[in-house]
Specification:
By secondary structure, this protein is of the alpha/beta class. The chain has four helices and seven strands. It has a seven-stranded mixed beta sheet.
């Protein structure tokens, strides 16, 4: 990441059998495999099954964020609608966004009160990523003076 150190969290899908995929939350640490991953939801191809979403984000996600920020940049990949009721996690996100360490995050392009609160924060700048601009966005964000982007 351009010589900068980073920490934070990430969510990602893993194939879980022929037709199923599982969504996990884990710490973000580039270059190292996730030590611990926490199940958020499963998609069986027929059903989308959330799994203790509030607990995962309020306990594990908030703890990850509370331990982050000892780096040049905090990564939040991604903030979405699943954690809309995870109030402890919301508070941890807002503390980091309001803090002194720059945050680069991804916000799902949907409208919820939770996501709109992040977008409305005075320290947040929203940059829309498209197929055409996606290769240039990271460089632009890293070069940007405010360092607060979502």
């Amino acid at each position: 990441m351009s010589g900068l150190s980073a920490d934070g969290f990430m969510t990602y899908w893993e194939q879980d059998g022929a037709n199923a995929r599982s969504l996990y939350l884990s710490s973000y640490s580039p270059g190292t495999p996730a030590v611990e991953k926490y199940l958020v939801a499963r998609n069986t191809g027929k059903d989308f099954l959330p799994a203790n979403v509030v607990d995962v984000f309020d306990v594990k996600g908030a703890a990850i964020l509370e331990g982050s920020g000892k780096t040049d940049v905090i990564v939040m990949d991604e903030l979405g609608f699943l954690e809309s009721k995870a109030i402890v996690f919301h508070e941890a996100v807002m503390r980091r966004i309001s803090g002194s360490v720059p945050v680069i995050g991804v916000i799902k392009p949907v409208r919820t009160d939770w996501l709109d609160t992040i977008r409305a924060h005075p320290g947040v700048e929203v940059h829309i990523v498209t197929i055409e601009n996606r290769d240039d966005v990271l460089k632009e964000l890293l070069d940007h003076q405010t360092g607060r982007c979502a």
